[in-house]
Amino acid sequence: MGGGHGEGTTYKGITIHQPKRWHTVAGKGLCAVMWFWVFYRAKQDGPVVVGGILGRATMIMAMVVDTSRHQLRKGEQQILKSLCLPEEEEEEEEGLRFGREVKREERMSYLLPHLHSGWAVDQAILSEEERVVVIRFGHDWDDTCMQMDEVLAAVAETIKSFAVIYLVDITEVPDFNTMYELYDPCTVMFFFRNKHIMIDLGTGNNNKINWALKDKQEFIDIVETVYRGARKGRGLVISPKDYSTKYRY
């Protein structure tokens, strides 16, 4: 019973014939191709996967250290003030002695993570596969950056499902100043899957936002536009609002 030719094994009336030689060779060949493809993809994608995990862990540790350092410095300042100034005169004396620096300290946002090296910036961009990476280049003490940081800190929680925000001091990390022409006091740029995403804002500069946005919803709309366009493989997106007349008002 059963079709085919050649020797075989019969069990309960059913004969199972031995596979032909070309069947065996073809099966082994397909198996070899499969394992070659598995190891090839592991070689190509392995460093990215492992590097992304290690990079994310390193950034988290750096952010924890940065936050702890700030809290420690703030605690030291409070202790020194309490020792040097009477409690009832503290507020008045601070205004006279420290002037504008006190206001700057209050306005600076420590809610956003800082990247302290070029390697950290690269890892932040490489490690995100599904979210837009928003980076503000500038200085924490600059008035324009402080205005922008207030907006960034306010929207960070709202856009966290599709975007992550980082701050970079261009004096501490000068690696990208020439590459991205970071000559403005404040610069905001967008990256997705290790690619710089440009946006046409109507200003003639499609590479970045080089002024402080004051409207939170406008910035959310811009990030959403960048995210949708980047997901479709676009390297240049059109801003939902034309900012060509922003200098007139």
From TrEMBL:
Any single GO BP term: mRNA splicing, via spliceosome
GO CC terms: spliceosomal complex; U4/U6 x U5 tri-snRNP complex; U5 snRNP
Classification via Gene3D superfamilies: Glutaredoxin (3.40.30.10)
Protein family (similarity comment): Belongs to the DIM1 family.
Full protein name: Thioredoxin-like protein YLS8
Taxonomic source organism: Arachis hypogaea
Taxonomic placement: Eukaryota, Viridiplantae, Streptophyta, Embryophyta, Tracheophyta
